[in-house]
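Entry 14. Ran structure prediction on the chain below.
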Amino acid sequence: MSDKYILYLYDGIGDLKYIWGDNDILSLQYAYKEKEIGRCNLVLPPIYDIYNDFDVDCILKIYRYNGIGYYLEGERAWLLQDPFYNSSPDQKHIELIFDCSNTYIDRREIAYAAETAQTNRTEFADDMLRNIFKQNAGTSAIAARDLSAFIALQAKHSAAPSISKAFAWRNMLDVMRDICQESFDDGTYLVFDIVCTGGTDFEFRTYTGQRGVDHGLDSGNNKIVLREQTGELNNLRWGKIWSDSKNYAYAGGQGQSTARTIAEQSIPNHINRSRGNRREIFTNASRNPSSAAFLNSEAKALLAENRARLIVDAELQDRPGFVYGLDYKFGDKMVLETEYFSLDVRLDTISVEYIFNQESVSMEENLSLILHGELYI
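Output, structure tokens:
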């Protein structure tokens, strides 16, 4: 019988150190989500030199068996952050804690002054993501910040809406999340990822529509329709959220008192749904230039972020002919159908436990596959 998992551990410069199968590990847990830093916890028997063998940024690749062959789980690699030796009366073991490769994004600040070409931009949102990475971790960064020797840049696609944004001296991951949200608010789903392309080489990529394969409403014969009655869904929850919504936004720019520049954006059909339903919100955008384009963009983004919406969350469940890692994978877009609506949803969160079951005396895998869909009302 094939191992469920095969793990490859490389040192920080890409030289292979260990290959582990099911019988070599005590447990494996990992979880990751779109636009986030995933976390992996690997527990090993205490037979290694933990002090010297496991240095920072050792690279772990997780290959999972899907019934036919092995595939690189999530197209990602994991960077070792915290190695521990644990000892108790019952057991001694080594615990290795990893972050996924998106941590490279989180390690950078937008290290440029305000109101420069690097921090005040108007361009396609996906190209903006790419250019931010290039300027802060790629070939346009200073040599000490340049990761292009092992992280390539995907070619430009110019597939997302054009937006205006200012973002001096902010964390790069936070800025990228904001840009994706603004693109979604303008009607285009946008995410990014650092994927492992082979060995220990990586590529920064952007995706519009979905992170994986399109099985959504507009995919024609490729459509996958999920229904509560047919057994693919657990813990389905959907509803409309008005409670924390806003429908009138102010963005305050530079200037003092009555001379301060203010931009305003609103959603009239929401305001008029009931008496007294004007719900206001303000953001201080004075760190940005006070041009109408930038302030209107800030007000619009604030309003969209707080807009009333329909949300859907569910846990996906395998069944015969519908198997994770074979028939669908992380980031795929599918259709969730109810008696009231059909909505595109995406498999955007993966959580896995692979642990020893005392009763069956074998390793056992527990999958949590979370779907999320969202539609502004």
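Residues 172-185 form the longest helix (14 residues). Will compare against last week's run tomorrow.
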